[in-house]
Amino acid sequence: MGRKPSRYLLVKLLVEGTVPDNLLIQSVTESIMNLFGETGLSETAPRLIAYNEKESIGILRCSRDSLEKLRAAIAMISKIDKKPVGVYVKAVSGTSKRLKSKTLT
């Protein structure tokens, strides 16, 4: 049995100040749990691949079949660590290399 295909999302945070990477992935996980429960979380299998705290931009990985679930969960995030925040998806790709070459430095 082979590896399951993944999708990579380039996400941008609109926030005053900075948000640490652990709080970002925690917020994504909580949002998925609230919307889809434990089953949805295990199907989505979100992982933070890269994150630039200074630029508030990162790459999230999820299973290919759960891309829309992750996008919905990201759209529902409005606060991280009691700070108002907007998180949006800038791009989606089948490889992280392509997204890293776009904006992460």
Q: Please give the number of β-strands.
A: 5
Question: How are the strands ordered across the major sheet?
Answer: 2-3-1-5-4
From the N-terminal CA to the C-terminal CA, the straight-line distance is: 35 Å
Mean pLDDT: 91
Number of helices: 3
Shape descriptor: globular
The first-level CATH class is given as Alpha Beta
CATH architecture annotation: 2-Layer Sandwich
Low-pLDDT residue spans:
none
Q: What share of residues is helical? A: 25-40%
N-to-C series of helices and strands:
EHEEHEEH
Oligomer status: single chain
User: Structurally, how many domains make up the residues?
Assistant: 1
> Any idea of the CATH topology?
Alpha-Beta Plaits
Helix/strand class = alpha+beta
What fraction strand? 25-35%
How is the biggest beta sheet arranged?
A: 5 strands, antiparallel
- The CATH superfamily label reads Ribonuclease P, Pop5 subunit
Radius of gyration, CA atoms, in whole angstroms: 13 Å
Give an overview of the whole structure:
There is one protein chain. The protein is an alpha+beta fold and 105 residues long. It has a single domain (6-93), classed as Ribonuclease P, Pop5 subunit (Alpha-Beta Plaits, 2-Layer Sandwich), CATH 3.30.70.3250. The chain is 38% helix and 34% strand. The chain has helices at residues 21-44, 67-75, 96-102; strands at residues 6-15, 47-52, 57-63, 79-80, 83-93. The chain has a five-stranded antiparallel beta sheet. A hairpin with a 2-residue loop joins strand 4 (79-80) and strand 5 (83-93). Helix 1 crosses helix 2 (67-75). The chain is globular and about 45 Å long.
